[in-house]
Amino acid sequence: GQQVMQIPQYQHVQEGEDFTTYCNSSTTLSNIQWYKQRPGGHPVFLIQLVKSGEVKKQKRLTFQFGEAKKNSSLHITATQTTDVGTYFCAGVNYGGSQGNLIFGKGTKLSVKP
Amino acid sequence: GAVVSQHPSRVICKSGTSVKIECRSLDFQATTMFWYRQFPKQSLMLMATSNEGSKATYEQGVEKDKFLINHASLTLSTLTVTSAHPEDSSFYICSARKNIAGARYEQYFGPGTRLTVT
């Protein structure tokens, strides 16, 4: 079945350093979504990427969708302590399915002040 | 934005009893809702897809007779854990799919329900 691999599993950074998490799908995706989950909380939708090669920015966050629509990345510039949490990518392939999200295992980010 | 509520937020029940969890989309209609389970420090695992007015579609390995899903309206889906066992203790999260435009959707998650079976 479809799988979404996400690396790294953990990332510890010093405040002010950059951070990147990567997702790879075993199949071509219709779109990919990114979520942030704070400790003890629920996943919060960050963004959705649909087009091949798409790049979107939200302040210090940059999201990319690969040309083949099988990989994606989230890059945070100059991390802050408020960035702490687990970042999940989730892929969707609408072809032949109900469009359910397949989640990566997440990257847990810790930021040392 | 879009808001999805989930009730209860926490529930403790005895082994052998049943527990019902409600998921509501508060400001939009959701023909499709999803139920996930999350074990500590792990990712979300899809349990089932719930479509309004029809039977839910369960993922492989999920017992449909144990996890009963009802999607009776465009704003409400329920998950009932029947004959609960301690191994059913987990964090259950629902999400509702909101149509944005054409074939584009966004999914919004409820706050989750922490189930503890003693």
Write up what this structure looks like.
The complex is a heterodimer of chains A (113) and B (118). With 113 residues, chain A is mainly β. In chain A, 0% of the residues lie in helices and 53% in strands. Chain A has no helices and eleven strands. In chain A, 36% of the residues are buried. The mean pLDDT of chain A is 91. Chain B has 118 residues and is mainly beta. Helix content of chain B is 0%, strand content 58%. In chain B, strands 2, 4, 5, 6, 9, 10 and 11 form a seven-stranded mixed beta sheet that branches. In chain B, strands 1-3-8-7 form a four-stranded antiparallel beta sheet, with no helix packed on it. In chain B, a hairpin with a 2-residue loop joins strand 9 (90-101) and strand 10. Chain B is globular and about 45 Å long. Chain B starts with a strand and ends with a strand. The interface between A and B is medium-sized, with 23 and 24 residues.
Oligomer: heterodimer
Please estimate the helix content of chain B. under 10%
Number of helices of chain B: 0
- In total, the number of strands of chain B is 11
Most extensive protein-chain contact, per-chain counts: A-B, 23 and 24 residues
Largest sheet of chain A: 6 strands, mixed
What would you report as the Rg of chain B, rounded to the nearest angstrom? 14 Å
Distance between the termini of chain A: 41 Å
Please, how many helices of chain A? 0
Percentage beta strand of chain B: over 45%
Spans of chain A of 5+ residues with little confidence (pLDDT < 50)?
Answer: none
Provide mean pLDDT of chain B, rounded.
90
